[in-house]
Amino acid sequence: MIRHICMFKLKNENKDALVKDFCERAESLKEIAQLKRFEVVTNDKRTPESNYDVSLIFDFDSVDALKAYQVSPVHVEFGNFVATIKEARACIDYEF
Q1: What is the per-residue pLDDT across 11-67, written as a single tens digit (0 to 9) for each?
Q2: CB within 10 Å: which end of the chain, N or C, has fewer?
């Protein structure tokens, strides 16, 4: 199994609305067949502002399944949206 963790720091303008929109739109990713585990989390507001705002935590059967997810039209559309609201992105993929 491959775990894909992708964290985003969103733009400061209307951040609460951006976080809400991100989480709502991320729900569309559930329809991607290669996804075996789906979790979208938001940073606790009581923690440092330097933390990332939102994270996707997804599991896949293989690296090939992750690659298929990354080029799926639903993911590409979501990625295009995220590109308009993010300041930074960090990602890690690991086998477990």
Answers
A1: 999 999 999 999 999 999 999 999 999 999 999 999 999 999 999 999 999 999 999
A2: C
Cα 89 to Cα 7, 31, 53, 55, 82: the distances in Å are 6, 23, 10, 9, 10
Phi, psi angles (nearest 5°) of residue 38: -135, 125
Q: For residue 5, which of 86, 79, 89, 85 has the smallest C-alpha distance?
A: 89
Identify the CA nearest to 92 among candidates 34, 21, 5. 5
Which residues sit opposite 9 in a β-bridge?
88
Number of Cβ within 10 Å of residue 49's Cβ equals 10
How open is the CA angle 34-40-45, to the nearest 5 degrees? 165
Q: What is the reported pTM?
A: 0.94
Q: What is the DSSP letter of 29?
A: G
